[in-house]
Amino acid sequence: MERNNIHKNISQLLGGDYEYIVPLYQRDFAWGETEITQLLQDLYENFKLGRKYFVGSIIYINRTSAQGRKLEVIDGQQRLTVLTLLSNVLGKDLMPKLYASRLEYDSRREVSEFLKSLYSDVTPSIEDKSDDKEDIKTFKGAYNTIENCSLTTDDDALSISKLKKEQNEEIKEFADYIANDVYFVLAEMPQDTDVATYFEIMNNTGDQLRKHEIVKSQILAKGQSYLSQQQMDSLAMVWDACSQMDIRIQESIPANKRALVFGENFDSFIPDGILQLGDTANGENEGAVEIDEIIADEKYRKEDKKKEEEDDNQ
C-alpha cells in the first residue's frame, strides 16, 4: 500500500484487491459480545455526531507476489474480522463494494470456507450446528451479536437488524459511514521481521495506551514551550494521581510528597504545594522516605491503620 497515506477507510481496505492473511502464529478470533457491542456502539455514536472514527491499527508484512496482493496481519485481526462480518450483516445492497471475504486463515481452512460461504449464500446460514468446530461457533456468535446487539447504551433496543427491517434512510447512511468515515492506520513491518520476537515484546510491554494517557502526552507536549521542567513534572504527577480511579488521590502521590499538598495529617488541600511535587532540582531521591522512617513515623502508621480499618469495613 502507498506509504504516503497510511490512513485507510474501510472501503479502501476491504473494497480493494488485497487479501489479508491471518497467520498460524496469531491467536484465534476471540472477540465476544462485550467487545463487539462496545465497538458498534462507538461507531453508531460517532455516526450520529457526524465524526470520523479511528478504529485502530493494522500492522502487517507485505506478502504480495505473483500469486496475488497479500498482507500478513500481525496486529489488528480482531477489529478487521468484526468489520468484515459487519459488511456481510449489512448486506450486498448496502455494501456493494465490500461484499466479499478478503480474510484468509493459514491452516484454518474451515474458517476461510465459512467466511466465503457467508458471501455465497443468498441467506447466510449462521445457526449453530452440533458438529460445528469451536472457532466456527465463535464466528457465528459474533455474527449474531453484530446483527442484534443494541447500538445505543440506553434502553432503546435499536439494532442493525431492526434498522434493516425498517428500511429507512438511517441504515443507508450508517452503512455509508462505515465504508467511508471509519479508518484504520496501517503500518508495514520489514520483510525480515522476527515475528516471534515482535510478539514477545508486544505481549510483555505492548499494551495500548489508554485514552487518558494519550491526552496526558498531548498536554505535556504542548506545555514544553512555556512550562518549566518542575511544572511539567508536577503536572504529570497530578495527572497520574487523578487517573487512578480505584484508590484515593492521596495514596497516588508519593508518600514523601503528600504533606506538600494535603498537610501533615493529609486532611487539607494546599494548592501552592502542587508545584513543589515536581521539584527534582536537588536529585530524584531528595526527601525520599526510607522504610525505617515509615515504620517509625506516627503519621504513616496512623494512615496505614486507617486504611486497613476502612478496607475491613467494606
Q: TL;DR of this structure?
A:
This protein is α/β, with parallel strands linked by helices. The chain has helices at residues 10-14, 33-49, 77-90, 109-120, 134-148, 160-166, 169-181, 195-205, 211-223, 229-243, 249-252, 258-262, 291-296, 298-313; strands spanning 7-9, 19-22, 53-62, 70-75, 103-105, 182-188.
Distance between the termini: 56 Å
Estimated share of beta-strand residues:
5-15%
Helical segment count: 14
Which oligomerization state do the chains in this entry correspond to? single chain
Shape: elongated
Structural class: alpha/beta
The strands making up the biggest β-sheet line up spatially as: 1-6-3-4-2-5
Low-pLDDT stretches: 280-291
Major sheet description: 6 strands, mixed
How large is the radius of gyration? Answer: 26 Å
**Average pLDDT over all residues:** 77
Total beta-strand segments? 6
Kindly state the percentage of residues in helix: 40-55%
H/E element sequence = EHEHEEHEHHHHEHHHHHHH
Secondary-structure blueprint:
Elements: E1 7-9, H1 10-14, E2 19-22, H2 33-49, E3 53-62, E4 70-75, H3 77-90, E5 103-105, H4 109-120, H5 134-148, H6 160-166, H7 169-181, E6 182-188, H8 195-205, H9 211-223, H10 229-243, H11 249-252, H12 258-262, H13 291-296, H14 298-313
Parallel strand pairs: 2-4, 2-5, 3-6
Antiparallel strand pairs: 1-6, 3-4
Annotation keywords:
314 residues, alpha/beta, six-stranded mixed β-sheet, 14 helices, 11% strand
